[in-house]
Design goal:
- It contains 5 helices and no strands.
- It is mostly helical.
- Helix 2 packs antiparallel against helix 3, helix 2 packs parallel to helix 4 and helix 4 runs antiparallel to helix 5.
- The radius of gyration is 14 Å and the shape is elongated.
């Protein structure tokens, strides 16, 4: 399965949120907000938007999850490894919901 240049554009918000947002974290409140609200929301919405693309494949949630793993060592500590599973579940749910929307609307 090939992932084209057009499909790679859906990874841009994920990369920006995973690598750019932790730079802005100054206190514990912002850390909790970003890890529990902002990042999962962006993951979910981008996964839905990607799955509405007719050429989408299941590799997108896997690639997004792999993109998150280096941030644990760069910005967080090993206690953030639980978020790998949380974000993977959110990404797969978004992908499945997007595919269901496509099926219902018969796109």
């Amino acid at each position: 399965m090939k992932i084209g240049k057009r499909e790679l554009l859906y990874l841009v918000p994920i990369v920006i949120v995973f690598y750019g947002l932790p730079v802005l974290i100054k206190d514990m409140g912002m850390a909790i907000l970003s890890l529990l609200v902002i990042m999962p929301s962006v993951c979910f919405l981008s996964s839905i938007m990607y799955s509405l693309n007719k050429k989408s494949n299941i590799l997108y949630p896997i690639i997004c999850t792999i993109i998150y793993i280096p941030t644990i060592f760069i910005y967080y500590n090993l206690s953030a490894t639980i978020y790998i599973f949380i974000y993977a579940i959110i990404l797969f749910l978004g992908y499945i919901i997007g595919k269901l929307i496509m099926k219902i609307l018969k796109m």
